[in-house]
């Protein structure tokens, strides 16, 4: 066989698809009991439930947009999250709707003036912590109403005790525009993400419930080359220690109503709620099912056995990653790619672009 691909996430699936298209023989092995990695959806009450967290496809790159659209049609979903704070709803990202809800202002000039007044004193010196940084960017009211408690839940620490660099920018829009993303293209695959994965993997042998490391030598012997999309530290048997990740916990609930919150994403700002947001999955696809499925999302420290969600790209972990990356391997035998092997947060469009770059390097 030409290629053994370890992992059936977007990176492995795009590469396998393109390799097969070029006449190569490919097989995928996947540790989980399903294909698609983190974009996989469970079908509950006929609703596509994003099992590993809400996934919204967005890109500015027409090539990537055309690429995914050849496999599946995308709907017109636009991410417009809502925040619930002290029993009042606010539009996100911070824009004229939010400012009107906060202060009753109707003109951009009025909003600018308030933010300017509230942040001025904090812009005179270098912010010493996240709280000062956030206030210097958006003023005290927005910080207290929409940032403080949410951020403290996410990090498990007070904003005053968090470093300023965590928040580099807080986009503020002086237009009535609730579209979270600025990208030209955005949507959800009609029928869900599994359809995208099914189309990519058509005709490709995928063996589920197989851990590459259960018999690495055997799997290595079966192919000329191995594309590995799992965690890089695991590949090298954690010889320098483990890379850190942040995790999440999801709690699903089926509710006997056709519409629980009227929006796909509602952020819960207040500390009295342990979770940070509720996702109502049917709204990603304008679903009209009789029931609904919601997911409460709880931030949590990574513990042994948890899923890896976000890499912690601080200095310590980046240095550790560099050590792994510099271990010499035979490039004629092993290729690494994807979010886990590269220890990098990738959006879906970025991971597809990265897989297509590998395709062009490999087959040019
Ligand atoms: P994965 O999807 O993780 O695939 C890797 C696969 O390898 C997994 O299936 C794993 O089981 C398998 N594997 C690992 N080790 C082994 C082994 N030893 N043997 C066999 N198989 C193995 N992107 C967006 O564009 N929009 C969003 O809204 C968005 N939301 C997100 C929300 C969350 C909470 C997270 C964490 C990510 C989000 N993303 C989003 C990013 C998106 O999930 C990634 O871009 C994408 O899943 C990366 O694909 P991948 O193939 O690199 O990794």
What does this molecule look like?
The protein has 364 residues and is α/β, with parallel strands linked by helices. Among the domains are: 3-78 and 186-244 and 311-363, Rossmann fold; 101-166, no CATH class. The protein is 30% helix and 20% strand. It has eleven helices and 16 strands. The protein has helices at residues 10-21, 62-69, 96-103, 108-119, 130-138, 140-155, 193-200, 216-221, 232-235, 315-325, 348-363, and strands at 3-6, 26-29, 41-44, 47-50, 57-59, 82-85, 88-91, 185-187, 205-207, 225-228, 245-255, 265-268, 277-280, 292-301, 310-311, 334-336. The strands form four sheets. The protein has a seven-stranded mixed β-sheet with strand order 7-6-12-13-14-11-15. A five-stranded parallel β-sheet has the order 9-2-1-10-16, with helices on one face. Strands 3-4 form a two-stranded antiparallel ribbon. It starts with a strand and ends with a helix. The model has no long low-confidence stretch (mean pLDDT 96). Bound molecules: flavin-adenine dinucleotide. Flavin-adenine dinucleotide is lined by residues 6-12, 29-32, 37-39, 53-57, 211-213, 229-230, 248, 309-310, 338-340, 346-349, 351.
């Amino acid at each position: 066989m030409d290629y053994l691909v370890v992992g059936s996430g977007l990176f492995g699936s795009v590469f396998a698809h393109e390799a097969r298209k070029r006449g190569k023989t490919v097989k995928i092995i996947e540790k989980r009991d399903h294909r698609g990695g983190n974009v996989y959806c469970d079908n509950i009450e006929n609703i596509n439930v994003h099992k590993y967290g809400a996934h919204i496809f967005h890109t500015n790159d027409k090539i990537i947009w055309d690429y995914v659209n050849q496999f599946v049609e995308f709907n017109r979903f636009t991410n417009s999250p809502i925040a619930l704070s002290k029993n009042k709803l606010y539009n996100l990202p911070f824009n004229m709707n939010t400012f009107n809800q906060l202060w009753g202002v109707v003109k951009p000039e009025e909003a600018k003036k308030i933010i300017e007044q509230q942040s001025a004193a904090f812009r005179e010196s270098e912010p010493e912590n996240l709280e000062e940084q956030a206030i210097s960017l958006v003023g005290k009211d927005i910080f207290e109403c929409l940032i403080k408690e949410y951020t403290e839940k996410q990090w498990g620490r007070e904003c005053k005790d968090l470093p300023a660099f965590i928040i580099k920018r807080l986009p503020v829009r002086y237009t009535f525009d609730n579209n979270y993303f600025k990208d030209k293209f955005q949507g959800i695959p009609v029928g869900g993400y599994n359809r995208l994965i099914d189309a990519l993997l058509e005709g490709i042998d995928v063996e589920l419930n197989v851990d590459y490391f259960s018999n690495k030598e055997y799997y290595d012997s079966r192919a000329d080359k191995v594309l590995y999309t799992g965690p890089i530290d695991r590949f090298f048997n954690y010889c320098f220690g483990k890379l850190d990740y942040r995790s999440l916990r999801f709690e699903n609930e089926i509710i006997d109503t056709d519409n629980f919150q009227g929006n796909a994403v509602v952020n819960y700002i207040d500390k009295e709620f342990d979770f940070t947001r509720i996702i109502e999955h049917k709204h990603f696809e304008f679903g009209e099912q009789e029931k609904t499925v919601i997911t409460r999302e709880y931030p949590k420290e990574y513990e042994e056995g948890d899923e890896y969600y976000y890499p912690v790209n601080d200095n310590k972990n980046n240095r550790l990653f560099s050590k792994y990356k510099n271990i010499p391997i035979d490039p004629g035998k092993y290729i690494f790619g994807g979010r886990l092997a590269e220890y990098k947060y990738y959006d879906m469009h970025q991971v597809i672009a990265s897989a297509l770059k590998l395709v062009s390097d490999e087959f040019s």
